[in-house]
Amino acid sequence: QAQLVESGGGLVQPGGSLRLSCATAGRISSINAMGWYRQAAGKQRELVASITIGGRTNYADSVKGRFTISRDFAKNSVYLQMNSLKPEDTAVYYCNTNPPSWGYWGQGTQVTVSS
After folding, report:
1. Which of 21, 33, 34, 92 would give a disulfide with 108, using CB separation of 3.0 to 4.6 Å?
2. Contact present, 78 and 36 (Cβ < 8 Å)
3. Is 87 exposed, middle or buried (0-12, 13-18, 19+ CB in 10 A)?
4. Residue 4 parent element (H or E)
5. Is the distance from CB of 80 to CB of 67 less than 8 angstroms?
6. Pairing label, strands 91-97, 77-82
7. Distance CA 5, CA 25 (A)
8. Are 95 and 21 in contact (CB under 8 A)?
């Protein structure tokens, strides 16, 4: 059984928005700092947004001001609101703990930004 399941990806035009969701098994997202990661074709996976238990957030410079990470303890879920999307945001997006736990990598959700 997958521990973390990402959803919400899709094809969107430049300037558009998407909201990614990450449903976590048990209390994974309630007892850990969480992060959203992405991996573009031919590139290494990178952390784009993180949130602590206390709600402090941090963003990669490339998405700062456009992406917002949030969490819902009651739903054991983490979200990534992505606005003003650019073609360079195209990637597979994953959620995981921060720092990441090897056993929690899921299938991810594909985000494609293209006209």
Report:
1. 92
2. yes
3. exposed
4. strand 4-7
5. yes
6. unpaired
7. 9
8. no
High-pLDDT (> 70) share of the chain, %: 98
**What pLDDT score was predicted for residue 1?**
66
Using only C-alpha atoms, the chain has a radius of gyration, in whole angstroms, of: 13
Task: Tell me which residue has tokens 């456009």.
Answer: 66
Tell me: the pLDDT tens digits for 46-101?
A: 999 999 999 999 999 999 999 999 999 899 999 999 999 999 999 999 999 999 99
Both tokens assigned to 81: 């609101």
Statement: residue 2 has pLDDT above 90? no
CA dist 36 and 48 (Å) reads: 6
